[in-house]
Amino acid sequence: MTHPSIRRGRRATRRTLRAELRRRGAATRLASSCRRRPRSLATVAIAAGVDRTTAAGCANGLRSVAKRIGLTPAATARTRRTVAGGRAHRTHGVSHYTLGQVRMLIRAYKPRKPEYRAAVARIAALAGTAR
How far apart are CA 120 and CA 40, in angstroms? Predict the structure, then answer.
């Protein structure tokens, strides 16, 4: 029989390992869903491993590039979910980009901030483009 403090330590270690496994699995699922279907630019950046604030700023820059080069996103209708778990009555359009469109935007995007440059390099790695 092991000492209770040893069991407690092992439980804590297993708990942190399970949390890390869940986090890595969620990141893998998000990245694979970005490869399969159109997603928003911020979602693609987050799937590439960029933090949320940098992803939002980088997505804004990529959106302005899309406007400049005349690239229209693949429009997708989406139904909002309600708080109770049901569906709302109206759908609304959202702007999602395919990975091919993201590649085109990355080629035309020239960020100045160092964190945006690093973010674009990570997005390019996810999209399969050499930057």
Answer: 15
